[in-house]
Amino acid sequence: MTALVALLSFFFVAAYLVSGTITLYFTIAGWRHRNIPISLPFTLLMGCLTIWIYGYIFEILSPDLDTSLFFNNIEIPCTLVVPVAFLLLVLYFTRRERYVTPITLPLFFAPPAVLCLVEFTNPLHYLYYPDFTPVRYGDVVIWVHGHGPLFWLAITFTYLVSITSLILIVSHLSATGPHHRRPILLLLLAAEIPLACNILSTLHITPVPALDFTPMAFMISGIILAFGLFRYLFTSIPVAYTRVIATMQDGVIVTNGLSRVIDINAAAGQITGVPVKDAIGREIGEILPMLPDNLRGTSLPDKGGRTECRIGSGRQPRCFDVLAMPLGDEGVGSEGALFVLRDITDRKQAELALAEANRKLSLLSGITRHDIRNKLTGLKAYLLLSEEAAEENDTRAAAEYLAREQEIADTIGRQIEFTKIYEDMGVMSPVWQDVDICIRVAMADLPLTGITLENVTAGYEVYADPLLEKVFYNLIDNALRYGGETFSAITVGASPAPDGTLILTLEDNGAGIAAEEKELIFGRGFGKNTGLGLFLSREILSITGITILENGEAGHGARFTIRVPAGAWRRSGARSDD
Question: pLDDT of 543-562, one tens digit each?
């Protein structure tokens, strides 16, 4: 029996030593983050627990009552400060830190100071500990203190402070989003365990009535708190999950001083692909791995920063402007960061398309000048020949030269008139356009009498230059001009391809295009009219990455295939951020 008691005594002492070591580690860890306000009450809490636990070890191992009371007097200030430190921690976490000021702070510690004085002077009045009873466990003697009225006053004070902390934690639950209750529940659990254990120890309802299990219970709470603080709570003011943030279309992520996510709205969860409930507590680098190093963790510049990132997998990643702003005061240290993610995909597409369109517009102007200059050179040559024919009275030659001059003048006129139609190419940003409507507008300006046109493109929109309808106009006009005697029908269709692109087809039952001319028809100057129709059609489409080719069979009709890349088409009525 004696050996069993000795073994149990060794177990309890070892358990308290482990507990004290753990709380000492957390004290040091908290102090390292002392630039974060909430870490200060945490450090005070863990420091007091460390002194309490080590003091209690020496108290129960003391050989006599005087030595036991000496170590008990060391513990008492800590036992009274622990609930106050926990209350301060709760005030910071529940955004009530306004109650902790240089003026109010002494009021928090005034009652513990008075009660400590009462306990230290117990030999003068014995109203705190009226008597001391030795309880022997083998070779170990533990002095059980009697409870006087001032002791119960101290207990009442500690319980009132602890209950206040519990009320603040529970009230904060109702004002917090569902995905942010996990750290609050941890805080609640950390408050309940030592309170319940202290009540049992005070009433001696424990397996070993003479031992106080409260310090060990606080050690368990310390582990829970440390996990919650390091993972969730180390920030100056946890951001409330307000309705404004929750319903924003921009993604919002808030991190603590250790760059762990403590708040994230639904939009950010959808953007990053990480569910809100799984994002809380993770590193920002895990949520946004594409962030540059200077915008991660404690390395965030004092004035913040921004970058552009492509986020999303699959065929249609989107471009986001990421703004990172520190939550701490400049020069004080990071207390966390706010990340705002704004979708700029459409803007970036418009910028790139506009730059490409301007390049093509410059190309069109250059082509026009070049072609007209060439025609004018020919016109001048025929004018000289006409003068010579007039001097020689060669009326036949003069009439021929005059006809050539008229032909050149007509060609220049057509080129000028034609390019006027395209003077807005690239001036306006690309927009989403309904393919079916574009084709109907093109049909309205063409003589389709006797021609059957079947349009089965309803339900699709493409992101293209506003002159998209001119592309369909040119293709249909080309069929009317060169379809031949067998030409009587045009079919326009649309269908998504397995690779995510949209295939638009326009085919007729006319003469078709010879194999050697399939690529030449898109070149400048090819054809009998202006030589620019199909050339400009390809240029207009390429502004937003759309391609066109002719892959019909000669003698069986022309077939133009337009391939719209993923991200540049959508179902009619869908939002651009779908």
Answer: 888 999 999 888 888 999 99
* Alpha-carbon separation of residue 202 from 152, 172, 194, 390 (angstroms): 10, 30, 12, 131
Could you tell me which CATH number the domain at 2-233 has?
1.20.1070.10
Q: Residue 486, class by beta-carbon neighbours within 10 Å (0-12 exposed, 13-18 middle, 19+ buried)?
A: middle
Task: Please name the residue that has the structure tokens 């010579």.
Answer: 388
Nearest to 161 by CA among 86, 99, 213: 86
pLDDT tens per residue, range 478-523: 888 888 888 899 999 999 999 999 999 999 998 888 888 888 888 7
Reported pTM: 0.45
Q: Which two tokens stand for residue 382?
A: 């025929």
Share of the chain above pLDDT 90, in %: 14
Using alpha carbons, select from 99, 116, 140 the residue that is nearest to residue 8: 140
Distances from the Cα of 478 to the Cαs of 446, 468, 490, 528, 554, in angstroms? 11, 16, 11, 11, 15
pLDDT of residue 324: 84
Choose among 274, 179, 293, 153: nearest CA to 232.
Answer: 179
Mean pLDDT of the chain: 78
Give me the half-sphere count of Cα atoms (radius 13 Å) on the Cβ side of residue 36: 32
Q: What is the CATH class of 243-343?
A: alpha beta
Q: Is the pLDDT of residue 541 over 50?
A: yes
Domain 430-578 falls under CATH 3.30.70.100: no
Spell out the domain ranges in the chain.
Answer: 2-233, 243-343, 346-427, 430-578
| Burial of residue 154 (number of CB atoms within 10 Å: 0-12, 13-18, 19+) | buried
